[in-house]
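User: quick one, sequence for these tokens?
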């Protein structure tokens, strides 16, 4: 899948008539993957190639309105410092304008074992249980 550098602003997903620019702010990310979902739930991951200051961004010329997506953020796991980056967990775009589907609660929705909040990440993929913009 082709991805161009895109622009850092505006934040969120912005369609320009030909494709969509994706832009996400993160102070802690070391890498950000944009996850695109097909109707059957199949996931395609695209690494956002650019970072301007603390904003990760990329432009996908083929993406049209209605595309379901989310983000996976790679970074440090240090709960005592408030850092809980876990790419197994799909994240909503905080700038999305709409969300499709319903949340189905499952242990995979937690970033850690339910009985060990300061333990290691559990690694279970949350995407099948999550709403998507």
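Assistant:
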């Amino acid at each position: 899948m082709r991805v161009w550098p895109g622009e850092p602003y505006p934040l969120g997903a912005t369609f320009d008539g030909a494709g969509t620019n994706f832009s996400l702010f993160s102070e802690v990310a070391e890498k950000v993957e944009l996850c695109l979902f097909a109707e059957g739930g199949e996931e395609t991951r695209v690494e956002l190639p650019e970072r301007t200051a603390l904003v990760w961004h990329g432009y996908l010329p083929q993406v049209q309105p209605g595309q379901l997506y989310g983000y996976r953020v790679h970074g440090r796991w240090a709960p005592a410092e408030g850092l809980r980056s876990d790419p197994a967990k799909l994240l909503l775009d905080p700038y999305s304008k709409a969300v499709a589907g319903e949340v189905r609660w499952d242990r995979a929705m937690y970033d850690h074992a339910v009985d060990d909040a300061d333990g290691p990440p559990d690694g279970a993929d949350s995407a099948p249980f999550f709403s998507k913009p």
